[in-house]
């Protein structure tokens, strides 16, 4: 009965397990033929796996001898290497219904802009070279004229983002002096951008006027003195006051400032060139309207409602813009050639006003009719209903999309979502599995249901999204 002894399973001791771990060179030999990846990367992965196994054994974690076999180690290596070689920057499916989603990259650039980016990235260009004179040129001249023609402004400048734009304008025109702002506009925008803090950093002194809910023209007039540098109006972007409220219209501020020879600046936040009210959104002043109202300087983002690359656009009266351009801080905040290339392409699309709701993805998504979103939702439903039967209840329901980016916070756009109610796992688990899929899917959870708002999913993404959903419920593929 010699068999008997062998049948008693004796767990290997720590020492025995440690001896089973291959040496670095041995492990490298095992995987040498399986990959073309750079040796440095392969070595790094091999070392980290060996170290991890060693620590697990020393830490008393249950490690089976089989997990240290050549086969298991090579399989683990393949998995880790693939993860290591995959870019950190990943494409995701945005099923949140938030169109200008700051965490998911805000605006999507149209083909025309992408073509410019590729060209400018791979070839030399006239970025700062005047082709007429053969002399050094200004990078801003590539977009300044376009911005002025589109908005009616006298002059323009573009910096890294709108936060930088606000900082730069305040530092140039108001450092060491007072800036008057309504208490109702001392907002915090996402990502720790707070007007009082930005003001302090710029060296300007904030003078608050009015009450939280109401500010009158006489409140501004009462605080203007010889040390006042400007009147500032801030778009309250991501919050809305309702009830007994009042703000002073821009035109009245401009008239008041004019009496004292002071400039008025508006931080418009989103900054839109087109009226979105015909799509059921609240009427917001367009950049052109703000310029026409006589504002001296207006700033806004390039990648919110404008639908372009990240940038902070500064427009206004020539005398002020020239001063801002000369501020050494401007050099530190300057935009790169990719931003300029993307921005120029976007601006050119705005000249064809009739078509911007088709050519600019942000505007196309915002203006999409509920019926169009519904058709996309039904297409996804048809693709997944059968494969998911028994795993998940799948329906299509009414939801509300959001503009995002701090624009029009109260406004929902009537939309349609594919709704998943998993039968055997929790909604939270489903969310996690989809988020960590090879093509990550980001949806939202509402009342224990997982929603995919189809407004922010492109037609070309529906088939891939269906595969992600099927794989999520297919144990073999996970
Ligand atoms: C979004 C926003 C900013 C910041 O703009 P970024 O381009 O994100 O830097 C500043 N002010 C207002 C009112 C905003 O809505």
List the helices and strands and how they pair.
Blueprint: H1 3-7, H2 14-20, H3 24-31, H4 39-58, H5 70-85, E1 93-94, E2 98-100, H6 111-122, H7 141-151, E3 155-159, H8 162-174, E4 178-182, E5 188-189, E6 193-194, H9 195-202, E7 205-209, H10 217-223, E8 228-234, H11 250-260, E9 264-269, H12 287-292, E10 297-301, E11 312-316, H13 318-326, H14 328-332, H15 337-350, H16 356-359, H17 361-367, H18 370-388, E12 392-404, E13 407-422, H19 427-435, E14 441-442, E15 444-446, E16 449-453, H20 462-473
Parallel strand pairs: 1-14, 2-12, 4-7, 4-8, 8-9, 9-10
Antiparallel strand pairs: 3-11, 5-6, 10-11, 12-13, 13-16, 15-16
The structure holds pyridoxal-5'-phosphate.
Residues 161-163, 166, 189, 193, 234-235, 237, 267, 269-270, 301, 312, 406 line the site of pyridoxal-5'-phosphate.
How would you characterize this protein structure?
The protein has 478 residues and is an alpha/beta fold. It has 3 domains: 14-85, no CATH class; 93-101 and 365-477, Aspartate Aminotransferase, domain 1 (Alpha-Beta Complex); 111-359, Type I PLP-dependent aspartate aminotransferase-like (Major domain) (Aspartate Aminotransferase, domain 2, 3-Layer(aba) Sandwich), CATH 3.40.640.10. Helix content is 42%, strand content 18%. It contains 20 helices and 16 strands. The strands form 4 sheets. Strands 3-11-10-9-8-4-7 form a 7-stranded mixed β-sheet, with helices on both faces. A 5-stranded mixed β-sheet has the order 2-12-13-16-15. A hairpin with a 2-residue loop joins strand 12 (392-404) and strand 13. Helix 6 (111-122) packs antiparallel against helix 15 (337-350), helix 7 (141-151) runs parallel beside helix 15 and helix 18 (370-388) runs parallel beside helix 20. The chain is globular and about 95 Å long. It binds pyridoxal-5'-phosphate. Pyridoxal-5'-phosphate binds at residues 161-163, 166, 189, 193, 234-235, 237, 267, 269-270, 301, 312, 406.
């Amino acid at each position: 009965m010699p068999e008997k002894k062998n049948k008693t399973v004796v767990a290997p001791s720590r020492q025995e397990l440690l001896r089973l771990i291959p040496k670095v060179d041995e492990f490298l030999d095992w995987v040498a033929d399986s990959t073309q990846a750079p040796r440095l990367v392969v070595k790094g992965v091999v070392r980290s796996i060996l170290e991890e196994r060693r620590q697990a054994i020393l830490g008393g974690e249950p490690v089976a001898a089989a997990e240290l076999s050549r086969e298991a180690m090579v399989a683990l290596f393949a998995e880790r290497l693939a993860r290591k070689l995959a870019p950190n920057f990943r494409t995701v499916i945005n099923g949140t219904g938030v169109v200008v989603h700051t965490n998911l990259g805000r605006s999507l650039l149209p083909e025309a802009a992408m073509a410019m980016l590729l060209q400018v990235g791979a070839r030399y260009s006239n970025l700062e070279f005047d082709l007429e004179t053969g002399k050094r040129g200004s990078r801003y001249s590539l977009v300044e004229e376009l911005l002025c023609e589109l908005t009616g402004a006298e002059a323009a400048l573009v910096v890294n983002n709108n936060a930088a734009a606000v900082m730069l304008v305040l530092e140039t025109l108001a450092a060491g002096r007072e800036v008057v702002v309504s208490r109702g506009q001392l907002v915090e925008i996402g990502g720790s951008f707070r007007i009082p803090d930005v003001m302090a950093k710029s060296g300007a002194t904030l003078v608050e006027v009015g009450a939280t809910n109401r500010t009158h023209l006489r409140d501004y007039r009462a605080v203007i003195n010889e040390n006042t540098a400007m009147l500032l109006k801030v778009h309250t972007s991501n919050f809305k006051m309702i009830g007994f409220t009042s703000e002073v219209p821009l035109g009245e501020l401009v008239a008041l400032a004019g009496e004292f020879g002071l400039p008025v600046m508006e931080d418009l936040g989103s900054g839109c060139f087109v009226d979105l009210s015909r799509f059921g959104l609240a009427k917001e002043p367009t950049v052109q309207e703000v310029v026409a109202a006589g504002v001296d300087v207006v700033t806004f983002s390039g990648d919110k409602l404008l639908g372009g690359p990240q940038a902070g656009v500064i427009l206004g009266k020539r005398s002020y813009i020239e001063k801002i351009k000369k501020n050494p801080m401007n050099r530190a905040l300057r935009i790169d050639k990719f931003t300029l290339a993307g921005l120029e392409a976007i601006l050119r699309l705005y000249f064809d006003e009739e078509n911007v709701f088709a050519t600019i993805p942000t505007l196309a998504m915002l203006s999409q009719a509920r019926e169009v979103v519904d058709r996309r939702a039904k297409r996804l439903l048809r693709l997944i209903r059968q494969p998911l039967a028994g795993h998940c209840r799948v329906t299509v329901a009414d939801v509300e999309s959001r503009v995002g980016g701090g624009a029009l916070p109260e406004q929902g756009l009537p939309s349609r979502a594919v709704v998943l109610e998993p039968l055997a796992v929790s909604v939270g688990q489903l969310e996690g599995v989809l988020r960590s899929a090879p093509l990550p899917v980001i949806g939202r959870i509402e009342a224990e249901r997982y929603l995919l708002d189809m407004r922010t999913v492109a037609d070309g993404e529906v088939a891939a999204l269906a595969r992600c959903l099927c794989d999520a419920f297919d144990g073999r593929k996970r």
